[in-house]
Structure formats: structure tokens, C-alpha cells
Write a sequence for this structure.
């Protein structure tokens, strides 16, 4: 049998959370955030790294084809242009602002005499050159801009060694290790 609550009893009945319950819930939200936000940022940086991996892999593949056809390694972007089209961001202050100015900024094809350029997104500075003593082509993509991506972004490096027939692209696992890591071809 159901009991009917009087209006006086209802006024004494209090709904809601106590201060302790609210503090516990806020602490739980804080702990979950502290665990999930770094994981999300790592995943976002890995997704951005795919752009650099694609560019480096394309340049290494183009260098392989150039070497097969001409018997020497390419020395500038013009040597790679018949095997692929490489776009660059040409926005003003891309070296400072990175992707912020490249989202809507102008893009164009790389110049034939270039050996370095900014990726179309502005997130990476791409450079390639020869390690003469071993005749190995090295390509690097390093995070750019003065924002946090330069410190937290993940670089990519690649190489091609025609003497050994080795072509390699390596996605770097730690922010900042692109400065000291060179692939072993």
C-alpha cells in the first residue's frame, strides 16, 4: 500500500547533491581529462604526420625513378618534377605562423631550383640533399612554426641509397628527434 506524503513532509525533503558529491564528480572529470587529452593530442599529431610521410615517400620514390633513368641522384626539385608534382605554401610568414597562414594562403608548385620548401599545410619544412661521402639522398620533414606544433609535432625522414638499393621512410616517434635522427640507408 502506498503512503501519501503530506505537504509538510515534502518541504522537509531535500533534493540535490551534497558538496562532497560534487567535489568527487569534479575530481573524476579531472582525472578522466588528464588521461584522455594527451592521448587525443598524440593522435592529432600522428594524423598531421601523415602529410609529411606522404611528401617524403613521394620524393624518395621520385628520386629512385630519377636515379634509375639517369644514373645519378637528383640535386633539386626540378629533377623530381617529371615524376611528381610537389606543392608548397608560399604565404607570408609561414616560417613563423605555420599552418595558420597556409589554410587560406597561396600555394604553388615547387620551383625547379629549390631544395627546401614548406608543405602545403604549412605544418612542415621539407628539405632534401645528398650526403656526398656515401652518395645517399636524405629527405627530412620537420615541424614548423612558432606555435606548440614545432615542439610537439612528429617529424619524418627518408633516404635512398642506390648502391645498396635501399629506400626508406621513417616516421619519428618522439617530438624533436628529427633534429638528430637520420635514417640508416
Amino acid at each position: 500500500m502506498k503512503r501519501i506524503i503530506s505537504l509538510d513532509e515534502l518541504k522537509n525533503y531535500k533534493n540535490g547533491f551534497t558538496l562532497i558529491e560534487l567535489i568527487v564528480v569534479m575530481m573524476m572529470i579531472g582525472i578522466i581529462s588528464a588521461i584522455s587529452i594527451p592521448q587525443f593530442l598524440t593522435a592529432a599529431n600522428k594524423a598531421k604526420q601523415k602529410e609529411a610521410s606522404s611528401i617524403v615517400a613521394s620524393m624518395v620514390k621520385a628520386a629512385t625513378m630519377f636515379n634509375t633513368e639517369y644514373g645519378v641522384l637528383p640535386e633539386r626539385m626540378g629533377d623530381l618534377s617529371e615524376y611528381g608534382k610537389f606543392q608548397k605554401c608560399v604565404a607570408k610568414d609561414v616560417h613563423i605562423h605555420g599552418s595558420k597562414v597556409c589554410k587560406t594562403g597561396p600555394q604553388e608548385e615547387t620551383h625547379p631550383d629549390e631544395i627546401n620548401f614548406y608543405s602545403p599545410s604549412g605544418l612542415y619544412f621539407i628539405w632534401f640533399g645528398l650526403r656526398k661521402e656515401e652518395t645517399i639522398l636524405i629527405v627530412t620533414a620537420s615541424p614548423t612554426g612558432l606555435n606548440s606544433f614545432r615542439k610537439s609535432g612528429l617529424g619524418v625522414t627518408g633516404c635512398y641509397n642506390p648502391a645498396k638499393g635501399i629506400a626508406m621512410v621513417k616516421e619519428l616517434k618522439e617530438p624533436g628527434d628529427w633534429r638528430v635522427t637520420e635514417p640508416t640507408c
